[in-house]
Hints:
The structure holds 2 protein chains of 2 kinds.
Chain A: E1 3-5, H1 6-20, E2 24-28, H2 44-48, E3 53-55, H3 60-72, E4 76-80, H4 87-98, H5 101-104, E5 114-118, H6 134-138, E6 144-146, H7 151-163, E7 168-172, E8 180-182, E9 196-199, E10 204-208, H8 213-225, E11 230-234, E12 237-239, H9 243-253, E13 256-259, H10 268-280, E14 289-291, H11 302-308, H12 312-323
Parallel strand pairs in A: 2-3, 2-4, 4-5, 5-7, 6-7, 10-11, 10-13, 13-14
Antiparallel strand pairs in A: 1-8, 6-12, 9-11
Helix pairs in contact in A: 1-7, 3-4, 8-12, 9-10
Chain B: H1 16-29, H2 36-44, H3 49-74, H4 89-96, E1 104-107, H5 112-118, H6 122-130, E2 153-156, H7 163-177, E3 183-188, H8 195-206, E4 211-217, E5 220-221, E6 224-225, H9 236-240, E7 246-250, H10 254-269, E8 275-280, H11 298-305, H12 309-319, H13 325-348
Parallel strand pairs in B: 1-2, 1-3, 3-4, 4-8, 7-8
Antiparallel strand pairs in B: 5-6
Amino acid sequence: MRIIQYREALREAMSEEMRRDSNILLMGEEVAEYNGAYKVSQGMLDEFGEKRVIDTPIAELGFAGIGVGIAMNGLRPIVEFMTFNFSLVAIDQIINSAAKLYQMSGGQFNIPIVFRGPTGSAGQLGAQHSQAFENWYANCPGLKVVVPSNPYDAKGLLKTAIRDNDPVIFMESEQMYGDKGEVPEEEYLIPIGKADIKKSGTDITIVSFGKIMKVALSAAAELEKENISAEVIDLRSVRPIDYNTVIKSVKKTNRLIILEEAWPLASISTEISYMVQKNAFDYLDAPIRRITTADTPLGYAPTFVAAFLPSIEKVVRIAKEITYA
Amino acid sequence: MANSFYLYQNPARLDVKHSFSKLNLKLCSIPKFISFAVLVKMAKNNFTKENYLGWYEQMLLMRRFEEKTAQLYGQQKIKGFCHLYIGQEAVVAGTMSAIRKDDKIITAYRDHAHALACGISADAVMAELFGKVTGCSKGKGGSMHLFSKEHNFFGGHGIVGGQIPLGAGIAMADQYKGNDNVTVCYFGDGAARQGALHETFNMAMLWKLPVIFVCENNGYAMGTSVERTTNVLDIFNIGNAYHMPSESVDGMQCETVHHAVNEAALRARNGDGPTLLEIRTYRYRGHSMSDPAKYRSKEEVEEYKKKDPIEQVKATIVSKKYADEKWFEEIENKIEKIVLESVDFAENSPFPDPSEIYTDVYAEPDYPFINE
């Protein structure tokens, strides 16, 4: 099968959908003439013109709100944030407008919009450029939150997100844009809200999403060498969460580790832990464990980055602890 | 397009100097085939009997509807936050007569009058205030979140200034579709200090969006007077910072509002972009039902009541003999009936079933809500 980069998969998803539906447009900082801060939208201005690929000023609150207004009036905008760190400036329009208008209007104004861009840390960027807000957005009814972990998922999920009639937060990663993976030439869609078992196993369930799936899969490979068979589940979306796939897996393996790039308090792992203890209490042979980031802002030095993030070593160590290996 | 002549000079304009400087600009944009004399003559005869009778009836409905609303709030039939428009009616009435049915309207939370003027029935508005399922937002919005897609009323928004980028976006979608609809985006003087306004003004001018920004300056952001929030007392000057055509308008008269909106709408339909109208008005009541309005004097309120927009239109109707006393009585009775029937309708409508809590949250029909 053909191998392409994550950024190319995203670009194909947007371009294919824009060819299919003239109501779709892309707007954000540097998306047009600069070809995208991370080259996701490279060439799209040339193909679709300035009416449909729109450079905005640095005004996240304003252009996020303009995007929601565009969606209220029958079009389907894709709004790119250069990073979701900057989406905090726009969060009023995401939470108070995009997520609320369908309900407040009694079902008259649905908001078919995609807010997309990279989330999380990307090396030594300091505290303000190293945050993951997946759980913040996932907390808010009215939104859907998608966090794809590889090029194949990124393309199929983004096409679905663009066609979705509700607002979708679509979270990528600077550290994944160059990742390569198999992506078929022919069209496909991946449903939002269905987890994917990326590796089956029998001894322990590891759940993650987005960039941290790389840690989960690498750790599973390490564990395999020590005869611990890990089942690795990629949530793909954190609103809605496919609890059933996780619970079913835990009933088989009886052990669960959740890892994510998020501060621990009220994280996605907290939520999954609740649902698993509620629905699979009698199946658990060990406490559910989570591996999050440190409960701090991320400092600049490389030693901080290493200590802050979930790591393969941490996963292997905790997996051994709870399998009593 | 009716009533589309620029030259109307109203002596009541609050900023005479400013409007003279605007005059030069306007002269440049007048089509050459209409002579100056003809324009002056047409401007003087700009408004018809129908205009005045229409304004009167529309404003009286807003006024009587909200007087009843206040009463019902006191009886706790209407709950939540509730902001009355009484005193400001000419702003909406003068706007509506200057735009078309397919134009779009969006405003903040002081939205009852806007909703009624868009053509949403008094029944559907009153039922929404009661939280009934027959309300224009099915009981899910309440006083601050009235909506009607059918009537091009895009709401009723509760975060100060939050509707400003939305209004620009609605206009941008119409520009994208290639029609010549305009969006009228209302906000208060308080919203003029929000960042969303400044970001939106910049982009609206950059992209020449067909939007009319109507700042309803009633002098107070809740209890804080304009003077206490800024050095820039003339809000229209904010538009000038973005090179947006901007002016202040007397908001106690339908005529001045109509002319200003009409001119702005023409500009927007011609592809020349947005306008900021700072429409100077006054609310007789407090910010919301819980506000005794102790931050201003009774004399100030009385001064404005002397310029009451409904009384002004009535005086014109009488002086021009457009209608007699009998007509005024008939209209008063007709509106009383509409208002009382809307209360009956709301009273007799059911509240939404609790199961409706899960509908209209997602357009997706089978969204898996967490329910434990």
